[in-house]
Design brief:
This protein is an alpha/beta fold. Helices cover about 55% and strands about 10% of the residues.
Length: about 750
Amino acid sequence: MNTFRQNSSEGYYQLPSPGYSPPFFQEEKEVNLRDYWKVIQKRRWMIIAFFLMVVITTAVATFTMKPIYRGTTTVQINKENPQIVDFKEIFAVNTMDLDYYQTQYKVMESRSLAKRVIQSLKLSEHPEFQPSPETPFEKWKAALFTSLKSFLAPSYSFSSENGKETRLTNWFLNKLKIEPIRNSRLVKIHFDSNDPKLSAQVTDTLAANYIQQSLEARYVATEQAKEWLNKQLEDLKAKVEKADEALQAFGLKHDIVSLDEKENVTMQRLTELNEALTKAESDRITRESLYRQTKLRGFDSLPSILENKLIMDLKQAFIQYEAQYMKLSETFKPEYPEMIRLKSQMDTIQKRLEGEIDKIIAGIKNEYESGLRKEALLRRTFEQQKARVMEMQEKAIQYNILKREADTNKELYRGLLQRMKEAGVSAGITASNIQVVDPAELPTKPYRPNKPLNLLLASVVGLFLGVGLAFFFEYLDNTVKTTEDVDQLVRLPSYGMVPEISSERRKRLEKGASYPVELITHGHPKSMLSEAYRNIRTSILLSFSEKPPKRILLTSPNPVEGKTTTVINTAIALAQTGAQVVIIDTDMRKPRIHKIFDEENGMGLSNFLSGRTELDSIIKKTEIPNLFYIASGPIPPNPSELIGSNLFKSMIASLDQRFDHIVFDSPPVLGFADSIILSTFVDGIIFVVLSGKTPRETLQRAKEMLQQVNAKILGVIINRVDIHRSDYGYYYYRYQHYYGKEGKKKEISYTSKEKTV
């Protein structure tokens, strides 16, 4: 349960001191589904409230909304085949591209087509398109927009008629929607209206006007093309005649009838010479590389030398003689006859090797020079043939240019003449590449609002937003609530949790009773609060191995965290073990101990420390067995100086001999030095924090302040824990059920004199 360490000076074990910190960082707690469920359960009322707010708001807006009907007409847009000319340089429209269909969708949403439909159906007279009575908010918004427009663009002014037409067109386009069907040529035209008949009528009329507008645009394009074609035909006719005359004159001058056969033979000869030259140049480069290698005296790496069997045999014989010579040289001198013989044979073999290598090098040189002469000869022949080809092609190029120009002009003239005839025919064709597949049907039910869907989405969105808001507030909550917070955030053990009194119990407490809440451990020993304080007592007694702590200081980081109530009930629990316990009210700034025991604060600690009375006169016995207390006495101007005096040390030493436990009630750590001074006199310090109220930073700061004076911090008591929102509720419910029957037989009433329990 607790971690102990040995104190060499006192010979007992205790919890880690405030200066102690683990040599490693504690691993972050793994978050699981239970942690999420805790947050949801804790803030369930906020989630339910936000959920109901979203659902109710959506339901009211949905059921009060005016129904909107949607008419739908489906049209098919086929690929448009050009009817005028088919050469891409002038008129071709690539209908395979997506931009063609994207253009058609925008044409359906164009203002010009919208105006045609409005005029056809006389929508300006329809009640739905009449301006509705403006609310005060709408009047204010319109005035604001008018002022902004006049400020941003003061030079522009519109007549009332133009403004009405623009507004009508905008309303129409806001209700219109074009929906292409993916991977098809079908397009759905939607129109939303409060009138079901009008919604169907508008989509059919728009489809018809769209088809008519497409035909009109095609007819206009055809007429424009005819005018352009007439002009181009006249120009092309003159160009054709002029090109034919120039081609004929050039052929007569140079006696050219056809150059195809001669051109093929000449080019074939040039190609053959080019291939031969390339091969000769490659061979020359190979031989030149070998020749250059001989210049560098790198003979041993030449392929012809490496592959020569005679040279390899001579080298092998030389190596054998050399090995014999070296072996004999270890024993005999060079003048030894056998040594002379071996040396002579080695010299002979060396001369033969050099001779053979010289022959091979000479051969490589001759092959290189032969290849060089062959390449030069082929290059001269190639250049001569190339000059003949260029001379021959000079006339052919000019001839081909004239012939190509004449053929092109003739082809263009024939094409334009053919398209001129087709344009005359296509001008009278009224077929369209756009067809109506499904005309609009009269809507039988509203398109909006979709009540089931809206309520379902509102439920989902409200639930998710409520849960998200709950987790957001949980993230912002930086208070200490559970023992896990104490263990993980400030690394201190938990000495127990005191549950919060329910609202029903608090009402009973406010009625007259014989015991206040501060004495509940004595007045109602089988209550949940009493059991909690006995658990705290157990933790205190087990915090030291050989003997329990004698001087205990209970303090808190901030005011009003239930410190005094915890001090008294903990002291009562210790006294119930038979030990002599005294409570010292060292909070000489805002004392409360005397009020709980229903006594005056005339004589107390401040009187003794100022030397005005004896110690025995300020020790008062309570009606609780084994429990005594020392009141704070009159509030002095310098509490910290009195607590730090030698007289206070002497008083503590005297009380040690008379009591088993001394429990101190002190001011909060933050803001006052009293608790820090007292920490030097006690065996251990216990923090009291308020669940859900004490910020983690203040607890950490209080711990650091006490650590600076090497105080012994035992642990933390979490006060006013909401058992309904924690995992410990099950334990308390089982406890209440276990003592339920006996509790009904005898119920001890008590009253609360402090807001914090």
